[in-house]
Amino acid sequence: MSLRLLFRRQYAVRSADDTHIFDQIRSYKKPWINWKTCGVFFGLGCYLQYSEAIFEAYEIATAVPQDPLLPVQLTYKLKQLPMYQKLTHPSNSDNWTKYTSWENLENFESVMEKLNLGLEEGKLTHTLHKAGGIVIKPITFFNHSANEGVAFIHTGYRLCGYPFLVHGGMIATILNEQFKRNACLSELTSSPLKDDFMVKRLVINYKAPTVANQFLVVKTSTKESIDNKNIILKSVMENEKGKRLVTSEAILEDTGRASQRLAQSETQTSKKKRFGMF
To answer: What is the pTM of this model?
Structure first.
């Protein structure tokens, strides 16, 4: 056999059942994100920012109507909530008392007036009692036998941090007020004055975004009573449909500040009466 026949190139024939390697390669598709699309979106973003179209649309969407009937409408909406109706008409075994403001503590009207704390509009609601804030006074139901409270607070769009979401600091303020009010109403503490209590430790866990322009339901209960001066409370904030939004826990201490102010006020009043200054 000659060398030419030995090194001759061998040819192969592909059958119909064989698969060619190029048949398995997928066709290449160009990505839709390229310099052209980036340029278009960049220009659109610059235009919207310059024209403030997004801000104007958000302002229109969150506009607060200057309607004198708005408090009446919100009150009607509140009374239609299932939880509100349940607490308004409790069973015979439940003992729920209704309070219509932050400072209204049933038999302590004269005390609150002497302390100048504002019986009808408390510190919180007096500042935020406007359109877009807390339009109607918070409603609180308290069970004195179980030391549990349920509050209903309507939060408007003016309390937002991020668009359409209630600011986290506002939520903390509401919880702080609710904890102090429940502490002064509790049978496990000695002081009936809300401003006697100071929140020593507050832990807040945000479970879900809190959308504005709705009623928030704050359920507070006693976790542990250390003594008649210190108490541990826990709270759950829900939306109108019962979805859990925030869980919180706080340690409160009875400082006696409001009681001291009350005592000083009564002492000064008695001195003025003694010397005929009234």
So the answer is: 0.73
Give the separation between CA 235 and CA 228, rounded to whole angstroms: 20
Question: Is the per-residue pLDDT at 51 higher than 70?
Answer: yes
DSSP string over 150-213:
EEEEEE-GGGBSSTTBB-HHHHHHHHHHHHHHHHHH-TTSS---GGGEEEEEEEEEE-S--BSS
Amino acid at 17: D
In tens, the pLDDT along 133-165 reads 888 888 999 998 888 999 999 998 988 988 899
Contact assessment for residue 198 and residue 229, using Cβ atoms and an 8 Å cutoff: no
Q: For residue 206, list its beta bridge partners.
A: 246
Partners of 224 in the beta sheet?
232
Whose CA is closest to 163, among 264, 12, 59?
59
Q: How far is CA 177 from CA 19, 81, 94, 141, 235, in A?
A: 75, 23, 24, 14, 12
Residue pointed to by tokens 């699309």: 37
pLDDT tens, position by position, 97-139: 888 765 443 334 444 444 444 334 445 555 677 788 888 888 9
- Axis-axis angle for helices 35-51, 53-61 (nearest 10): 60
- Residue linked to tokens 């109507």: 65
Residue 103 and residue 194: Cα distance in Å, rounded? Answer: 8
Distance CA 115, CA 162 (A): 37
